[in-house]
Design goal:
Layout (H helix, E strand, L loop, with lengths): L5 E8 L11 E7 L6 E5 L4 E8 L3 E4 L5 E2 L3 E4 L6 E5 L2 E8 L1 H7 L11 E3 L11 H6 L6 H14 L8 H12 L6 H8 L3 H11 L4 H19 L5 H4 L7 H12 L3 H6 L5 H11 L16 E2 L6
Parallel strand pairs: 1-11
Antiparallel strand pairs: 1-2, 2-9, 3-8, 4-7, 4-9, 5-6, 5-8, 7-10
Length: 303
């Protein structure tokens, strides 16, 4: 019998000064087995960057054929599931929430929605290009690579970010389960409808109405994944009028029904989804079982 590839995932908590701008740094280590691959799908997320030593993933946003990606690949803010296939490799991942986009990316988030780009070729992500060489260093331990990535990001913190307070306030409001519509969101931020649209397009990618719908779905998925019984009936967010509305949203964002998602194998996402839900504001770090909380702290043992 042939051996299937295996995957190990490690999470690293970045320095406190970086935490408003990035989600946790994480590492996928895919063992070769007998040369096979691992397939899974991602739920909608903020911008994510992945740096590969070995064979880069294949992926597609939404329906379509999976195509080869780049050693440094950036997926923009997504409203659709990303299907991917992993081959033996070491892949470092780093999430970029809206505050990170506002501080480090020279471009509009709405120009990158629902697609992937070559991070080495696109000037919007030039500040992150040196991380690829750090990630591809075959002589360094994972802990050493993580510390070097952390140190490099700390060295870039002098980037100006004049709209950071407003972006942070908007992100916090989107995470608030009591904010049910665009009018409430604008009122909380003190913005007109037009100003709110411009802010969301520039730093969040999508119109505010879609962002609220997406967050509502992610809260539901988080409850489902953190429920040991995995029951959608207990997970559906209270902002949904009924189950039919939830199923329509699930199909729109994920390209499948909730039942189809629950029945499909998730060899990668089973290992990381709980953490990603914390990163996306759909769950709290304290909600996770102790075994799933961050296990590597870069403040200890810094080179």
């Amino acid at each position: 019998m042939s051996a299937a590839p295996s995957i190990e995932v490690s999470f690293y908590r970045l320095s406190e000064a970086l935490q408003p701008y990035f989600t946790a740094l994480y590492l996928f280590e895919i063992d070769g087995g007998d040369g096979g691959s691992i397939e899974d799908c991602l739920h909608p997320e903020w911008t994510a960057m992945r740096f590969t030593r070995g064979t880069p993933p294949l992926a597609t946003v939404g329906p379509g054929e999976m195509v080869p990606q780049w050693p440094f690949v950036v997926s923009g803010p997504n409203s659709r599931s990303i299907r991917f296939r992993l081959h033996p490799a070491r892949i470092w991942g780093l999430g970029l929430p809206p505050a990170g986009w506002a501080k480090f990316v020279d471009g509009r988030a709405c120009d990158f929605i629902d697609r992937t780009v070559d991070g080495m070729a696109d000037p919007a992500f030039r500040i992150f290009a040196p991380i690829l060489a750090l990630a591809q260093d075959a002589t360094a331990s994972p802990e050493a690579v993580a510390r070097r990535i952390d140190a490099y990001l700390l060295s870039q913190l002098d980037q100006p970010s004049p709209h950071e307070p407003l972006v942070a306030a908007c992100h916090a409001a989107l995470r608030d389960a009591d904010v049910a519509n665009v009018a409430q969101l604008g009122e909380l931020l003190g913005l007109s409808a037009r100003s709110l649209e411009r802010l969301c397009a520039r730093y969040f990618g999508f119109p505010p109405k879609l962002l609220l719908r997406r967050q509502r779905l992610l809260r539901s998925v988080a409850r489902f994944m953190l429920d040991p019984c995995h029951r959608w009936s207990q997970a559906i967010d209270r902002q949904y009028h009924d189950q039919a509305q939830f199923v329509r949203d699930f199909r729109a964002f994920m390209g499948m029904t909730p039942s189809e998602y629950a029945d499909a194998p998730h060899p990668v996402m089973d290992k990381i989804l709980a953490h990603r839900m914390v990163d996306l504001g759909a769950a709290r770090q304290a909600d996770l079982p102790v075994a799933l909380r961050y296990t590597r702290d870069l403040q200890a043992g810094r080179e």
